[in-house]
Structure formats: C-alpha cells, structure tokens
Amino acid sequence: MTKLRAAITGVQGYVPDYVLTNEELSRMVDTSDEWITSRTGIKERRILKGEGLGTSHMGTKAVQGLLEKTNTDPQEIDLIICATTTPDMVFPATANLIANEVGATKAFSYDIQAACSGFLYSIFTASQFIATGMYKKVIVVGADKMSSIIDYTDRSTCVIFGDGAGAVLLEGNEEGEGIHDAVLQSDGSGWVHLHQKAGGSRRPATMETVQNREHFVYQEGKHVFKNAVTNMGAAVLQVMKQNNLTAEAVDWLNPHQANRRIVDNTAKSMGLADGVDSEKVMMTIHKFGNTTSGTLPLNLWDYESRLKKGDKMILAAFGGGFTWGAVYLTWAYDGK
Ligand code: ACO
Questions:
Q1: Is there a catalytic annotation at residue 193?
Q2: Atom 10 of ligand 1 has which residue's CA nearest to it?
Q3: What does the alpha-carbon distance between residue 168 and residue 62 come to, in Å, rounded to a whole number?
Q4: DSSP string of 18-83?
Q5: Would residue 173 show up in a list of annotated catalytic residues for this protein?
Q6: How confident is the model over 173-196, as a mean pLDDT?
Q7: Mean pLDDT calculated for residue range 317-321
Q8: Coil, strand, or helix at residue 191?
Q9: Annotated catalytic residue 256
Q10: Which fold has domain 5-178?
C-alpha cells in the first residue's frame, strides 16, 4: 500500500497595496538604496495601512483566495493553523479570527509562534494530521504585520521587514507526492540576540516600556546572520542526506527571505555553485522584504506557475528563538 502523505494542493498569497521603497526609507533614516540593496537584496516591501487592520486581515484575504482558487467549501476545512509572530491580539489566536472570517465554522484553529520558521514548523505539524488519516483538508497560513513591531527610527531593522501573508491547502496524496521529511530544531539560548523586549508577561506594557521603545524588534544583526548561515545550510544538507538527494536532483530551494547573502550561502553550502543566482533558488526578497511567516508561502505563490508535478523542493528557514530547519517535499500538481 502507498504511504499517505500530506501534499500541497493549492497556494495563494496576499500583500498589501502600499509599497515602501528604499528611496522612501532613506528619507526616514540614515540609509541608502545602495546600502540596503547590497547588504540585503531588498528594493521594496509592502506595508498594511488602515485603522484596525491586523495580521488576520491579510491572512483572511489569502485564505479566501485559496478557497476560491481550489473550489473548496469552507465547511470542508478541518483545521486552520496560522503561523504568526504578530497576532492581532495576545489572545484569541489569529487563526480563530481567520476561520471565523472565511466561514470555516467546522474547523478548529490555532496559532504557531516560531518567528521566521513559523510556516516551516506549521506545515510539518499540519502534515502529521493528514498523514495519520485523521483529517482531510488542512490550511496553513503564514502571516505577519511586521510593520506593527518595527521601529522606523532604527535603520538596522526597519529596512528589512515587510507585511504579507500566504496560505496553502494540504490534502492526502497516495501517489507518492507531498511532504516527505523534515529537520526541525530550536535553541532557546538564542533569545537574547533576537526578541521583543516588552509587551509579554515578563515585561508588560507600561509608560516606561513605550517611552524606551521596547515594543519593537530587537536584533543583533551580525550574530543572527552568522547563526542563520550556519544552521540553515546544515539543516538543508541534513535533510538531503536523509533522503539521498544531491544538489542536481533538487529542483527548488525555497529559502526564508531574510537576507540575499544568507540565501546565497545556504544555496552554496547545499552544492549549488551559482548560489542565489541559481535558477533553482526562489527569491522574492527584492519586492516583499522579510515578511517573517509569510516568506515561504509567498515564494510558492510567486513561483507556482513554474512548478511541475513531482518537482523536488527543499524549504528552509531560520529565525527568532532561535528556530530553524528544512522540509523536503515533492510538488503535487502542474502549475498553471
Ligand atoms: N543603512 C546604512 N547603514 C546601516 C544600516 C542601514 N540600513 N543598518 C546598519 N548600518 C550600519 C551599521 O550601523 C554599521 O555601521 P558601523 O560599522 O559604523 O557601526 C554597519 O552598517 C554594519 O552593520 P552590521 O549590522 O554589521 O551590518 P550587516 O552587514 O550585518 O547587515 C543585517 C545588517 C542586514 C541586519 C544583517 O546582519 C542580517 O541580515 N542579519 C540577519 C537577519 C535575519 O536573518 N534575521 C532572522 C529572521 S528575523 C525573525 O526571526 C523575526
């Protein structure tokens, strides 16, 4: 009997209309298009504007588009997992809000918080519910309104992040396609290098925390960069080894979009001599920046028309926590 696997059977993205360019940023902080482009590869990013609009707004748009595109009745959805670091509220879960908005009233729903690795952790978690035969249709949405936790006076972080969401539908596949394997890791000692200082239970919001600008991303860029390069590369190599894959055999690397130079290192360490310039490497950082949980599904959305049934893909991420890993899957349908 063929093994039941969870396969991605549809993908949809949503990015807000407002485009924040490097040129506009260079009027806000002491930076330049040249610095941002050469150090990160980012040219522009999207920002969600509008009173009262949070991450669920973008997640809902992505899921609604996914349901329409895949001709799926929201009542058929068993589970919605939302990967996010910028939930609309501390509670309830953003996934609950999205499920309500799209009419998925028979689904249960919850969030996974693993910073930039959130989508990676979430699709592997979701895949287990399908592979056991317990559920038939699961949606994973990665969504973040990073602009809500970015200090637009801090040039070392404000140039990197953008807002966006992407969603995938996972269903059972008995033809051999779908999610095959994963290497997922975390190291909580990394928290000191990448976190938000206030707003949680350890340091709730006060006048002082607001005045000290502690409700924003704090990042020691160089340290995070080094860890991202080492660990993403190692996770990709490990998952390749576990599945007897060579770089030639892999059709796509879908890497987290934090920095073009990190992706370049990851691609080279898996054996792609051209690094980030290889045609196998998905890149959307130039137009979306780092959307945290949104990057991997936004890559899928952007490249969907080029994907073919049976394509071998490795997804990889590194982020706050620290969290990191790689997932190996084979694509289940021809893109249109
Ligand atoms: N414009 C101009 N100069 C700048 C800017 C800017 N936007 N930002 C920093 N600089 C300056 C610094 O002040 C420093 O100047 P100095 O030498 O006079 O002190 C110099 O540039 C070098 O600074 P670094 O921080 O060492 O620059 P680096 O080359 O490391 O690039 C960056 C910074 C882009 C943040 C990089 O370190 C990086 O990409 N880090 C990893 C990000 C990441 O992967 N995060 C994980 C995911 S995020 C999540 O999980 C939420």
A1: no
A2: 156
A3: 9
A4: EEEEHHHHHHHSS--HHHHHHHH---EEEE--STT--HHHHHHHHHHHHHHHTT--GGG--EEEEE
A5: no
A6: 98
A7: 97
A8: helix
A9: yes
A10: Peroxisomal Thiolase; Chain A, domain 1 (3.40.47)
Q: Which one of 22, 256, 259, 299 is the catalytic residue? A: 256
Name which residue sits closest to atom 21 of ligand 1, judged by CA.
156
Helix (H) or strand (E) run with residue 100 in it = helix 94-102
Question: Which residues make beta-bridge pairs with 311?
Answer: none
pLDDT in tens, 237-295: 999 999 999 999 999 999 999 999 999 999 999 999 999 999 999 999 999 999 999 99
Q: Which CATH architecture has domain 180-330?
A: 3-Layer(aba) Sandwich (3.40)
Q: Where in the chain is the domain with CATH 3.40.47.10?
A: 5-178, 180-330
Sole residue written with tokens 């009233």: 105
Q: Output the CA 222–ligand 1 centroid distance in Å.
A: 6
* pLDDT higher than 70, residue 56: yes
For helices 221-242 and 260-269, what crossing angle results, to 10°?
A: 30
Distance 155 CA to ligand 1 centre (A): 8
Concatenated DSSP letters of 240-287: HHHTT--TTT--EEEE--S-HHHHHHHHHHTT-TTGGGSTTB---HHH
